[in-house]
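G., the chain you wanted modeled:
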Amino acid sequence: MNFGIVIRVLGSLLLVEAGLMIPPTLISYYHGQEDMSAFIISIIITAIVGLILTKSFKYEKGLKAREGLTIVALGWILVSLFGSLPFVLSGSIPSFVDAFFETVSGFTTTGSTLINNIESLPKGILFWRSFTHWIGGMGILVFTIALIPTLGGGGFQIFKVESPGPAPDRIVPKVSDTAKVLYTTYFAITISQIVFLLLGGMPLFDSAVHTFGTVGTGGFSIKSDSIGAYNSTYIHLVIGAFMIFAGVNFTLYYALFKGKWKEVIKDGELKLYLSIIIMSVILIAININGSLYHNIGLSLRDSFFQVGSIMTTTGYSTVDFNTWPEFSKAILFMLMFIGGSAGSTAGGMKVIRILVVFKRIKREISKIFHPRAVIPIKIGNKVVSDETVTSIFSFLGIYSIIFIIGTILISLEGFGFETSITAVISALSNVGPGFAMVGPAETYSAFSNGGKLLLSFLMLLGRLEFFTMIALLAPSTWKKELF
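Predicted structure as tokens:
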């Protein structure tokens, strides 16, 4: 293990985080609120520790998969710990466990919250809380890669561990350039949404923080009633549309920019992603229109928003879907598992994995009738290797096992089964709200410290897609070379 390079990158990561705390500090200064001192102290502490880590240890150049895995796993824990400081020091969330939960929820773009009266928080804290979504959405380590040219080709080891989905690829030859392309796209979508929200009459501050939660598919709002507080069909549709945009593989936007329209149109994952959304919107709209609504237009509007929110694992709400009929809730529950596209900011299992599983099932059925046939699994024009298929099934197996174990452990909290099972799936898929006691109109404040820490761990597991955190805990990772 090249501990020197690991510690140096972690130190650089903290320096980046300290820099990212400057915008909320300026927000606090502008509004003349007391939380400014909390941010200044947090920046100083984070920067000092970052400098110590970057300057105090010698390192050898070269970054292998094991170092990349360690950096990603420890990096997410580290930024969450230091990112909790403004909440604690400002007194907004006095308990460090609660602050850690809120910060992990922010960086992992989960959006589960413990805060009951969100409007009472200072502007700087509200900005930082939502900004963690934007930072974590594309990945703070991907951002760091773009800033540290000394990593060279080794940066790809971090990139492929941090990036969600079964097989992340470089868009351009250099991984640092790939990171820059992704963040340029990310920034362009962010600015676009802010402009659209401003055109709808939403204040600039509100537009910015809700855009962070949309593009990062996080879901933290500055309103207790979430997006429902803005009684505007225009705002609901804009945020709903941008949530769906954020759930698309970001490499497709680069392909569009390069004029490769046919490549985008033929993308199998995109087709399935949009098909699931359209079908879910129609089914839920029909279901709620007959029971709760008497206006098909409103039914379609709210169905569109909530399907987009849950499918992309954003977690915003315009209504309390906890009161919807069981059929509609069952569809939303299914969408919590599926999630968005690989290479997007969304969580969940990812549509591409579901697509490969369906194609594998189709192949096995075909082989019953044609046992000697060689039938490759294809996504578009690309053949999916058996190794990739195996890794996808391994992922789904681990996902299922952790989901079951997590549900059993959370049930010790003494809440109902619906609360326990949706709290766990919400954490693993980084959704945010669930049903019953963790519905969109509720918070996670009723959980014990142990329950909050467990859910925080599940959020990290889900964001890093299990293998990273599990491998970090394995003794063999530290004893010998594995890669």
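Confidence is low (pLDDT under 50) at residues 149-157.

Shout if anything looks off.
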